[in-house]
Amino acid sequence: METFSRCSPDDHLVIIGNGMASHRLVEALVNHPQRPRAITVIGEEPVPAYNRILLSPLLAGDMQPEALTLRDADWYQDNGVTLKLGERVEHIDRDSRTLATDAGETLYYDRLVLATGSRPTLPKVQGIALDGVHGFRDLDDAATLEAIAQQGGHALVIGGGLLGLEAAEGLRKRGQGLQVSVLQRSDRLMNRQLDATAANLLKASLVERGLNIVTQAQLAKLEGDPTGRVCAAILNDGRRLPADSVIIAAGITPNAELGQQAGLTTDRAVKVDRHLTTSDPHIFALGECCQFEQHTYGLVEPIWHQVEVLAAVLCGDAGDGYREVPTATKLKVSGVSLFAFGPTEAAPEHDVLCYHDPHRGDYRRVLLRDGRIEGAVLYGDTQQGPWYFEQALAGHDLSGFRQALLFGAADVEVLRAAAAQLPPDSSELSAQHSSKHSSHSTSEAA
């Protein structure tokens, strides 16, 4: 499928990839007065860009596929953007500044953006190539998992992070006689975001719904039946779990091969500087396929910041460039709200504040160092999460309000007002209480 640009062929920007990062970049470019005069977007999938974050509610039956679409094909044409769908770029010739697609087309570019995203990281175990082993990254995967759910039997999800848990819960909700298990290598679910208490609360909630959660479990191999289809998973400790289908959700691998084949500097991904420029000044990289310093990306908030920087660069304003900033993770896992930032484990020098209401299912833990918030985990009621993060970013010394911290902003501000001899409803306090948190305060998973 293709829509044709009405732009001049001069100053031709080509974007390889049509995911969320690419689409957000195009949206930022088309209304800029100094936009590239011709923009071509090449996407390997046959449909326009869509919101991958919503694949989980799609699988669960809570959304229809069309609700995920970010813009239809007409929007690209109306904004003078050439959109090529269902094509894969196979080769980049940096000397001639051309690229070749699997459709036999050769395109010239003045500037090129790699926004090729990532793919599921596959465990290096025997049987990983058997039929019935799937990822969960695109619309086709969601359709495949929906069919699996309705077939019944045993489904095994490898990975106890956000994507794995959402896939497992979606399978459970859509399943008809389907037994769903989650295999997590760590001793707890979502070990990068949650402490042990919050992870155990989440596990208990998911087990109560009917999921089988297996932690501290490392996959040794997958077994196949005589037809070449997966039938079981064998763990390192010898346990054998039945599996008619296996869904891999144990991390992502940047799609950096195209840049590597073109001779760009790569490490874990395509390396970029603070202006998202690769080792070739005519080529840029964005999102999950790029690496800035030692960082690679899987959450949308830093990628949205990259988009802002790159859009400015492509429109002639280099600015200060990209920099890493602290982010908090705001998630809803299977209907349970979570908010977390900073360390998941308390260090000996941390002052640890905890609140737990088992009856309501609420939990929060705040880590202080020298009176300043360094991290927090909230489970259930996450309303105070952004305020905690705002205080952490500002580096406020909260030593004098320690006794009220677990109750949030309102109680702390009452104490502040008393300390300052100001009435609690003063305009100053009101402004503090209603202030917006940083634009980098929350981040969904990509």
Automatic annotation (TrEMBL):
Highest taxon of source: Bacteria
Q: Where are the residues of the annotated region Disordered? A: 423-446
Cited Pfam families: Pyr_redox_2, Rubredoxin_C
Where would I find the NADH-rubredoxin oxidoreductase C-terminal domain in this sequence? 328-388
Q: Which cofactor does it need?
A: FAD
| Domain (FAD/NAD(P)-binding): residue spans on this chain | 12-294
Give me the stretches of Low complexity compositional bias: 423-433
Q: Which PANTHER family match?
A: NITRITE REDUCTASE [NAD(P)H], PYRIDINE NUCLEOTIDE-DISULFIDE OXIDOREDUCTASE DOMAIN-CONTAINING
The identity of this protein, by name, is: FAD-dependent oxidoreductase
Origin species, per record, is: Vreelandella gomseomensis
